[in-house]
Amino acid sequence: MEQLTLTTPALLFSAISLIMLAYTNRFLAYAAIIRNLHDKYKKEKDTILFAQIKNIKQRLYLTRSMQIFGISSLLLCVLTMFLIYVELHIVAVWVFGFALVLLILSLAFLIWEIQISVKALEHHISDIENDEAN
Fold first, then answer.
1. pLDDT of res. 44
2. What's the Cα-to-Cα distance from 83 to each of 11, 13, 15, 21, 101, rounded to whole Å?
3. Does the pTM exceed 0.90?
4. All structural domains of the chain with their residue ranges
């Protein structure tokens, strides 16, 4: 097995940073949607709006989990670099492996969130298709 060097965990910095930027943009978009849905729901207590609010709430919590796992992965990459610096290579390898597992979990939550988002959009599309069919 090749020795783990400082450059290996450093390579993940740019990837994780871009992922975190995408997650943050998702989070901000959800915040705007939630505020909009909140105002609409206060005006009219529509069951469809309530279902949309429940859906976006689930997606919001998934996005939070994605962010937590992504940030934790980045922190462990930094810790890995420190452990390599102080020459604790065996510990560094295990910490880096755990960082990779957290990144995998973050991406798995992203896949889950995308599936829920697609289902929500399919409801809107079917509503439009039903209106056109009538």
1. 83
2. 16, 16, 21, 27, 18
3. no
4. 7-126
